[in-house]
Structure formats: structure tokens, C-alpha cells
Amino acid sequence: MSEREVRCYSGEVRAEQPTDSPTKIQGYGSIFNSRSEPMWGFREIIKPGAFDSVLNDDVRALFNHDPNFILGRSASGTLVISVDDRGLKYDINPPDTQTIRDLVLSPMQRGDITQSSFAFSVARNGDDWYEDDEGIIIREINQISRLYDVSPVTYPAYQEAESTVRSMKAWQEARDSGALQKAINEKMARERLLTLLNA
After folding, report:
1. Which of 152, 119, 150, 160 is nearest to 11 (CA)?
2. What is the pTM (predicted TM-score) of this model?
3. C-alpha distance from residue 4 to each of 20, 84, 147, 195 (Å)
4. Euclidean distance between CA atoms 91 and 78, whole angstroms
5. Tens place of pLDDT for every residue, the chain, 199 residues?
6. b/e string for 15-31 if b means 16 or more Cβ within 10 A?
7. What is the edge-to-edge ordering of all strands in the sheet holding 60-63?
């Protein structure tokens, strides 16, 4: 089973209260084709289509990924997740309690909480690694196997996933061994050419 990972995006969540309606929380858990901040030696891009197989998962909306502060749940209809051209979007109808008003809604309305995050697992063979023209290692995620929660968050904390780091190291080893083999092949070809020229 894939390891659980968490990613965070800035400026992607807000609380709105339409006239005579309860306050709603709206945000994006993920933005497509946008490079993450550097993480453990690489940057990450979530590709369109990555969430297509998990939109019917029973997903929770939590504050700071804390299961003690549940804001909504897709199975109960208090959380709706969807995908548009921009990314993974969510709409939450949070509980009308003093705790949630004080802890989450009021700080969001003041602009103190503006970041959003999601917890997920990557599908087997659901990511690709490469090095771009600037030498930056990129991990592209093409398929999510499980979406656990979406969360308004206080800090954009990236939680290390050992499986991700292992995956990057495996790619680096394969890349390096491929480069080594290419160099050996080129050297052998040069030696053969020199042998033919000197014959």
C-alpha cells in the first residue's frame, strides 16, 4: 500500500457567508501544472487527471489535518470535491459550532488562514521522475490512488513521506547507472573507431 503524503498550497482557501446563509469554506486542495516549493531535493507537479479515480472516495475535510476538527465529509454531503481546469476544488458546509467559528471561520474571514492542503497516496506507477533543463529534479504525479482529506491549514507544512524519498533515490540510481552505461558504450565505440583507424 502506498504511503500517505501531504501537500500544501498558498492562498487557496476562503470562508464566505452569503446573505442569510451559513458560512461556506471554499478552496483548492491542489493546483494542476504548478511546481511545488522544493521538497527533499525535488519539486512536484500534479497533472490534470491525477484525481479522476478518487473523486468518489469518502473524503474528510479537516482543519490542519486534525481528525478532532472535522469540517465536513463527502459521504454525508457536507463536503463536495470536484475537478476543474485549475485543480482539485472543494466546498465545505462546516458545522455551526462556537469552536469552529472561533478556531477556523473567524481567522479565515480575517485573512489569517489562507492556505490549503490535501492528504493522499500515489498509485503504483502513478508518478514520473525527470531532471529539467536547469538540473532540478521533478516528480510528476499522474494518478492518485487514495484521497484522505482536504484541509484549510495554518502553516504550509510538507510532511516527509519516506516512500517518496525512496522513489526519488531509486530514480536517481537508475538514471546514474544509465548515464554510466552510456559513458561506457561511448568509450567502447571510440576505442573501436581508433582501432579501425589505426589498422
Report:
1. 152
2. 0.74
3. 39, 24, 9, 56
4. 8
5. 567 776 765 546 777 765 555 788 998 888 899 888 777 778 889 999 999 999 999 999 999 999 999 999 999 999 999 999 999 999 999 999 999 999 999 998 888 988 888 889 999 999 999 998 888 889 999 999 999 999 898 876 554 444 555 666 777 777 777 665 566 566 667 777 777 777 6
6. beeeeeeebbbbbbbbb
7. 5-9, 115-122, 144-153, 60-63, 66-73
